[in-house]
Automatic annotation (TrEMBL):
UniProt biased composition (Basic and acidic residues): 144-154
C-CAP/cofactor C-like domain location: 191-314
Gene3D superfamilies: 2.160.20.70, Tubulin Binding Cofactor C, N-terminal domain (1.20.58.1250)
Biased composition, class Polar residues, residue ranges: 128-143
Compartment list: Cytoplasm
Organism of derivation: Sarocladium strictum
One biological process term in Gene Ontology: post-chaperonin tubulin folding pathway
GO molecular function: tubulin binding
Record keywords, A-Z: Acetylation, Chaperone, Cytoplasm
Subunit structure: Supercomplex made of cofactors A to E. Cofactors A and D function by capturing and stabilizing tubulin in a quasi-native conformation. Cofactor E binds to the cofactor D-tubulin complex; interaction with cofactor C then causes the release of tubulin polypeptides that are committed to the native state.
Protein known as: C-CAP/cofactor C-like domain-containing protein
PROSITE patterns: C_CAP_COFACTOR_C
Keyword Chaperone assigned: yes
Region (Disordered): 99-170
């Protein structure tokens, strides 16, 4: 019999009580779900996909249960889900041939069929990110596709090449996912053609950048998005149907619409948000939240819980000191999103960041530097 993700799954509850309160009912349901997911053998790709979907569903359910579960319980649930993720990642590492992860194109075109996912694909880490040190990455891994490697294109290398254009518009038309990594002082505006690559997204190791993914995400939302190691930047991520994981971001602005948002180890970040569950922060400070700006809103009718933030590191009574809401007077106006973020042929990234008040607290004409 194939081995399961957990050697010893969480025990199945012995009985159910029809009159359970919501907290106890969810606890029983959670144990049932974890036991079911943990028992699935992870040696085949279809099983891995099934487990990933199960883990993502558990994360969403934990977030949705925030209104009637104590902070301590939610943290225990999150730790249990993370254990599932870690066990799955360890199993994937064992059963996936190392040669499936290609970081360089071969010198000669070779027919190659690859069903593996790159290690920085957020689908492998629904609640956490790969341990790869993105700060030292100089180019993104070749996107794995069921096609000849000669058709692959390194979009990050193209973005890093010198150019007379102040705005870069990588098409990502020959990619299956969007990965932007290790860039500084760039204005990156993805065109609608990138909608074919929104199976997943990853934005890592960015410094003083303005990135707008909203156009392709408007027609084809990301299934999942990971943001990590970003400083003094503005990221308009657009629509995400799955979870968003934001880690180690400082002095920046993020705009995103998602079902679930988890934020870790961030400082001085303004988040303009539409979220259908409680946003979660952990090990963060100086976080400010606002509803999604008008130019990016849609009439889907879903409830926006942008201001129902749960701080997993603040278990005391009373509001957390690590986050607050942005008043209407403090929020950027519509022109910032429709004009400044889109850029012009004569506007530098430095000028754009100043107009968008990055670093935080700076205003037009003021010198760049550490935020106040």
């Amino acid at each position: 019999m194939a081995s399961s993700v957990f050697a010893s799954p969480v025990p199945h509850p012995l009985f159910r009580l029809p009159t359970m309160d919501p907290k106890q009912r969810f606890h029983t349901h959670f144990l049932d779900s974890v036991s079911s997911v943990a028992a699935i053998p992870a040696e085949r790709q279809e099983a891995i996909d099934h487990i990933l979907a199960g883990v993502a569903k558990l994360q969403n359910e934990v977030a949705d249960a925030a209104e009637f579960t104590p902070s301590y319980d939610r943290r225990q649930y999150a730790d249990t889900v993370k254990s599932l993720q870690d066990a799955l990642n360890a199993t994937i590492a064992k059963v996936t041939p190392r040669s499936r992860f290609q970081f360089k194109r071969p010198s000669k075109p070779t027919a190659h069929v690859d069903m593996g996912a790159p290690m920085n694909d957020p689908r492998l880490h629904p609640g956490s990110l790969s341990s790869t040190n993105h700060a030292t990455t100089t180019s993104a891994p070749t996107h794995q596709r069921t096609e000849s490697q000669s058709d692959a294109r390194d979009y990050n290398a193209s973005l890093s090449a010198p150019s007379s254009s102040l705005t870069r518009r990588p098409s990502f038309s020959s990619a299956t996912s969007i990965t932007l990594t290790s860039h500084a002082d760039l204005h990156i505006l993805l065109p609608p053609s990138a909608s074919a690559a929104t199976s997943s997204g990853s934005l890592t190791n960015l410094r003083r950048c303005v990135v707008d993914l909203s156009e392709p995400a408007a027609t084809s939302p990301f299934r999942g998005l990971a943001i990590r190691d970003v400083a003094e930047s503005v990221l308009v991520a657009g629509r995400v149907d799955g979870p968003v994981h934001i880690t180690a971001v400082t002095n920046s602005i993020i705009v995103v619409s998602a079902r679930q948002v988890r934020i870790h180890e961030c400082k001085n970040v303004d988040v303009y948000l539409h979220c259908t569950s409680h946003p979660i922060i952990e090990d963060c400070s100086g976080m400010r939240f606002a509803p999604l700006p008008a130019p990016y809103t849609t009439s889907d009718g879903t409830e926006n819980q942008w201001d129902q933030v749960d701080d997993f590191k603040w278990l005391k009574a009373g509001p957390s000191p690590n986050w607050t809401t942005l008043s209407e007077a403090e929020r950027l106006d519509d022109e910032a999103w429709t004009t400044v973020v889109k850029g012009t042929s004569s506007t530098s990234v430095e000028e754009m960041l100043q107009k968008l008040h990055i670093p935080r607290g700076k205003r037009d004409g003021s010198p760049a530097g550490n935020s106040a």
